[in-house]
From TrEMBL:
Belongs to the short-chain dehydrogenases/reductases (SDR) family. 17-beta-HSD 3 subfamily. The keyword Oxidoreductase applies. GO terms for biological process: fatty acid elongation. Keywords: Fatty acid biosynthesis, Fatty acid metabolism, Lipid biosynthesis, Lipid metabolism, Membrane, NADP, Oxidoreductase, Transmembrane, Transmembrane helix. This is Uncharacterized protein. One of its GO terms (cellular component) is endoplasmic reticulum. Pathway: Lipid metabolism; fatty acid biosynthesis. It comes from the Eukaryota. InterPro entries: NAD(P)-bd_dom_sf, Sc_DH/Rdtase_CS, SDR_fam. One of its GO terms (molecular function) is oxidoreductase activity. It comes from Oikopleura dioica (Tunicate).
Amino acid sequence: MDDKIEKIGYLVLGFFALKVASWILSRLWVFGLAKPVDFAKFGEWAVITGGTDGIGAEYARQLATAGQNIIIVGRNQLKLEAMRKEITESSSATVELVRADLSKQDETAKAAETLKQMANEKQIGVLVNNAGVSYDFPEFFHKIQNSAEKLDQLVNVNCASMVQITAAVIGAMSERKTGLVVNIGSGTGDLICPLLSLYASSKAFVHHFTKCLRYEYESYGVHVQLISPHLVSSKMSKVRAGLLQPAPKKFVKSALASATRLQSTCGYFFHDLQHALVSNIPASLQNKLLFSMHESIRQRAYRKMKQN
Ligand SMILES: NC(=O)c1ccc[n+]([C@@H]2O[C@H](COP(=O)([O-])OP(=O)(O)OC[C@H]3O[C@@H](n4cnc5c(N)ncnc54)[C@H](OP(=O)(O)O)[C@@H]3O)[C@@H](O)[C@H]2O)c1
């Protein structure tokens, strides 16, 4: 009997060891060894929202280098023009600009109308829903809720604009039976995130919407991918680049390598690893850890404001 239990124990251990090994190997292959994805098979044009800074600007640069013509949606005309200049000088891509403040529903609706028309005239094969806003620093919800402007930004930029802009281009993709939609969520979208409640919840919406759309459009040849990064060094995160918080260039290179190969990923090997570890911590401990981490960032932000 004891022998039998021991054998079952080894079998279970072996099964989990195999699972972990195949998880690690598949990610090492995708992020490190696989050939670059051929984006031309989806079409000639890629749309990137929030393509004027951070992760979105890098998607625009790297998709242009990969041979795509680029449509950048952004709110700041000067930054849009600067991106067009940079990309056209460094690649053979044509760049078109759509100016819209995606926190304003009327401007988003107008941008979506423009993109719908573009999708009827051009082969838009890739859409990256990247534009996003977060809190300035972790904070109790009632203090965020008092700021109508912040609420508009979080709900409209992170959720509503993604929905409207996807609706504008995915129909044409499904008619052509090819396409790639990449929605940028966040590691927080899968975790209980005290003091970032509204941001994390807006990202949870992105995650759920992406997973539903994926199955809706699978048989139409349209890939719908969820990228949910942990910390990336940018204007939003305000952290310096390092192994666990890559610069946008490094992050997007790896996220692009995962397109069509991983349906849901953090987009970067060490973030996937971090996510797997954090998700397996018991929820009560996870919540305590995240609360105390965010509370200390909050206290630090208040001290800094007092000094200035
Ligand atoms: N950085 C991270 O650690 C991290 C982690 C998880 C998830 N993410 C997600 O990754 C995405 C990109 O973040 P990031 O770090 O690259 O941030 P970022 O550097 O702040 O860039 C955000 C982009 O969104 C644009 N944007 C913001 N509000 C807008 C509005 N109202 N209308 C139009 N465009 C607007 C910004 O435009 P301007 O150039 O005009 O500011 C910028 O191009 C976001 O969805 C974010 O939630 C980031």
